[in-house]
Amino acid sequence: MSTPASNLPLEKAALVRLIGKLQQEQALLSEASAEGMTDIISEKANIVAEMTTLAGNRHRLLATAGYADDEAGMQKWMNEQGSDADKDVWADLFELAQDAKELNRINGLLIGKKLSINQSALTILQGKTGTGSFYGPDGQSSIKSSGRRLGVV
Question: Could you confirm whether the keyword Kinase appears in this record (predicted)?
Answer without folding.
Answer: no
